[in-house]
Amino acid sequence: MKVARFSHGDSISFGIIDEEEHELVVLKADPLFAGFDPTGERVPLIEAKLLAPVIPRSKVIGIGRNYREHAAELGNETPTEPLLFLKPNTSVIGPGDAIVLPPQSERVEFEGELAVIIGSIARNVREEDAADVIFGYTVSNDVTARDLQRSDPQWTRAKGFDTFCPLGPIVDTEVDLEHGTIETSVNGELKQQGRLADMVHPIPKLVAYASAVFTLLPGDVILTGTPAGVGPLASGDTVEVRIEGLGTLSNPVR
Ligand code: MG
Questions:
Q1: pLDDT tens-digit readout, 37-77
Q2: How would you classify residue 174: left for phi > 0, otherwise alpha for psi between -120 and 50, otherwise beta?
Q3: Cis before 95 (ω within 30)
């Protein structure tokens, strides 16, 4: 199922995308907490503005250096265990929303990534049970102030600015990502092209590892790392991250 959060007129709702009819089947409430209970109403997709498909209640977990070639391009070793960091939920924006370049940085870069949406309370999950606590997947951009990442001893500032976590356009609860690819382009020019299968630490390992540190809550997001090819963003750019089956996450930069 493909699930969207959207605004239509004055209201914000969740809906299931009916791809044949190009419509949203409106749900009574957030399916993360209330299941897939339709109101009976339908909204044409063309009339809806898609929003960030999830608002993380507690945290966005980032994974650093989870693709070998990306770690190497920035002169880093691949970590033997997942490298965790956090982004505040205030960094989340939706499809089409602007990434705002902060005055504190002179080098803001895109990082196209697959995002995992947690669906249930999870603590000390075993790798073989990870799928049970995953609600679905969406596309993300782990926007990073690269100069601040280098100058600060840790990454809170570099990763945490408002607008530094675009998510969307939809959550897919059953997409098959085994042979998936991820591509990032800036102003239509392809910059990153990676295979999701090339993650150093795969998704079940990330869920198990993170849930052994802190309790994962429904709506928490795990950004799974970026492939090689990261680069700078400038005001006026449009950055697009595409994952087959999940669609394209497009954001202007200003
Ligand atoms: Mg990243």
A1: 999 999 999 999 999 999 898 999 999 999 999 999 999 99
A2: alpha
A3: no
CA 139 to chain centre: 5
Which residues are within 5 Å of ligand 1 (an ion), measured at CB?
111, 142, 226
For residue 188, the CA-to-ligand 1 centroid distance in Å is: 21
Topology adopted by domain 2-50: SH3 type barrels. (2.30.30)
CA of 113 to the centre of ligand 1 (A): 7
Top CATH class of 60-252 equals alpha beta
Q: What angle do CA 33, 225, 99 make, to 5 degrees?
A: 75
User: pTM of the predicted model, to two decimals?
Assistant: 0.97
Q: What is the whole-number distance in angstroms between the Cα of residue 111 and the centre of ligand 1?
A: 5
Question: Which are the contacts of 104, defined by CB distance < 8 A and separation ≥ 6?
Answer: 145, 148, 157
Q: Are strands 60-64 and 221-223 parallel, antiparallel or unpaired?
A: parallel
Residue spans per domain, the chain: 2-50, 60-252
DSSP character string of 15-75? EEEETTTTEEEEESS-HHHH-S-EEEEEEEGGGPEEE-S---SS-EEEEES-BHHHHHHTT
pLDDT digits (tens, 9 = 90+) for 7-42: 999 999 999 999 999 999 999 999 999 999 999 999
Q: Element (H or E) spanning 92, and its range? A: strand 92-93
